[in-house]
Amino acid sequence: MSSSKSGAVIHRQLAVIACDVSGTLKETLARLAGLEIDLVCVGDRHLVLPASQVRAVLSCLNQHGQFPRLVGDENALLDTSEPVIDEQDEAVEDAT
Amino acid sequence: MSNPAEVLLQVYGQATMARIAQGAGATGPDAYAALTELMGDKTRRRTLVDAMPVTSRELLAFMGQFERRLRGERLKRRWFLHGYAEFEQRITPLIEAGVVIVGNVGAREPLSLETALEQGLLQQWLQVSPGFEGLAGEAPKAREVVEQFEDETVLEVTVRTLVLEYNLLAAARFTEAHKIRLNRDGSPHRSDLKAMAPLIIDRHGGGSEHVIDPNSMEGWDLLVFILSIGEALGCVERRDDTLRARNAGFDFFRKSLAERIPLLLRALETQRAWSEVHAAVWKATGEPPTTGQGDGGFLVEGGPGANLAGARGSVLSALRRLQPHDWFNIVDTVATIGSLEHQYLATVLPSAGDEIGIASFVRAVITQTLVHVGAVDLGRGSDGTARARLTPVGRTMLGVGEPPVEPDGTGALMVEPSFEITCFLDQAPLRLLYDLSRFAESAHTSERVVRYRLVGESVQWGYARGYTADSITSILTTSAARQVPGPVTFALQDWERLHRRVTVFLSGDIIAATGKSDPEVVQSGVQFAIDRDSDLEIIDFTHTFVVAGHKEPIDRALMAHKPRVIDYNGPIVPSLHWIDDKNLHAPLGGTDFRLLARLGRFCEADDDDVFRIHPPKIKAAFGIEAGFARLVQLLREGVVGGLTAERELQLKQLLDDPAKAKVETMEVLVVGSADDGDRIARIQPLNEFIAARLGPRSFHVIPGCTAKLLARLRELGVKVES
What we know:
Chain A is of the alpha+beta class and 96 residues long. Chain A has helices spanning 22-31, 54-63, 87-95, and strands at 8-19, 40-42, 46-50, 69-71.
């Protein structure tokens, strides 16, 4: 992909964590240190990551007792990727 | 006036005259002549009417009021609503005697009475035969269709509408955090219903003492009804194979009772997952359904109750016309409504549209549907008969009463210094319960009291949804019987301070200026294109974040800059360039953020856009071998043009693990590993020294070229043993 002629890049499907001060950013980074996610610091107060990974971040922050302000469609956070098993099949699986 | 017999002949034809003459008691060899003689005399006509049974004369007098023809079905309904039954039994003698005509007087062709009756009495026009008007006297007085009782009725089942609404709220709140999985037939998983059950109040009270069980008939019935109504109200929706909250539908909980009642009525009629036909069977057997039969199915389209909207409306309409003022007998009322609406219900009820099916459906609407929403109370008379009565909400739903006054919430709460909130449902409007569900966690429920607890998690969850410390304090203060304790207001402020420190923008696009573009121009163009400031977050001079949903304005604003797109749902986009053996250039704004995140594990940033490979960091994080493998993988994906074998050999040397090779004879080169063998094979310039690859690790060197080959390998960082 040639980039020489492009004057701008649109990075689609990203999430941003905005902190009030750089100290909060460091604190947040420390909380998220154990996660296998593609998290990048941009500037002094912002973290950037793929939107598909934001659920893991929120879950981690929640575990630390932090419930940040959310902006955007929370429905996107819902996990519908897990295949649904009919409860009759589930019962058979449980039995076996 | 012409003789009534002439009209009868015109309507029925000659073939029916014998039957009518016999019914009227006119004897003679010529039936029509005998009939003409009888009906031509007013005195004899009066005698004929007087000879009719009293019950038939009452109906005749009633028909005389209309002075026009009516369809049989309509006449029968009016007769019922006048307070009388046995329509067919009463009208038959009148028809047989020619006092009432079945059919169209103005028809060109006669239609025999036999044929008309075969086509269905209720489908035909009915009218008093000319000359018989006024002969039956006064119409009987109207009676109350639904008999009222003077004896005492013991209240057995009552459900308050607020309790149903609380349950709807609890289900919606539950599905915000958890999904309810659906089986193949669309019915909800009972294990998920079980997880929701402790939040639900049933008429026996909820909470730890009594948790409803989805494996019981009552529990299944109530839980499916709540979700079904919730879906019809738009608070819950099917998403893929699960039920989830639909926040756009939560507006219902913020409306006044007067606004909610019509919405509840509509939801009750149009709900699709819960069906009276199924519910009647569950109740009759006392067992919940077997999974897989479609009961309680939230299907993608349709559903067991989807086609019952008209039937429900028909029963409610009949109940409205009956206007029961107090307790009424359920069995009698079911029979009356069944008769009134038989014609319609028989056509719309699925498969069970016979008498039993209709009665069962009407009974289920009165004793289950309306009870679930708090529109009907159930009781028992002193004679043991089952009775029901409309509640004020039920009267409002049917349009025969004013909506009850909803409490304003004053004194509904007690806020304890322990952060516990006691809410008295009798004094609480739904709006207050909705607010509490947004920032407090439900700790215990019973029929009249719900206990909540304020914790950091629940309050910050509320802050994330637009509440503030001040607004929560205001809500609590307005409804609290006593002053809100100081520690509570202090904690609310403190939690808000914590909450405000971090904002997560869940999904959107970052627009970055690259190349020779002026970042200020790019950024101001984006700012101009997005009309809501709250949807923008300026990260720095180069990067601007825009909340999802502004694709077209962004594309328009950046058209002149010919933007590249990196989609983070797709593969990594190569964006790195080598500066030298150790340093990589990652163009500012133009590099895939996933690469930047991963480079940080292997490199030190010497500048905003220059990354130096840092062997100690790699060794510490992964070890040499694994670190090298990961680094090679990353650079193969991330470097524009991929990673050459030469670079890979150089990287090995950089990590202090150079590829190894030795000359075992003057003509054979053996390298340390098969991977290094592959790398050497991929280096095109080395081919002029190599005659052939002998195996994964060995090469046949062209005679006379060994020294040159080794020199070249040394240049590439290969440690060569002699």
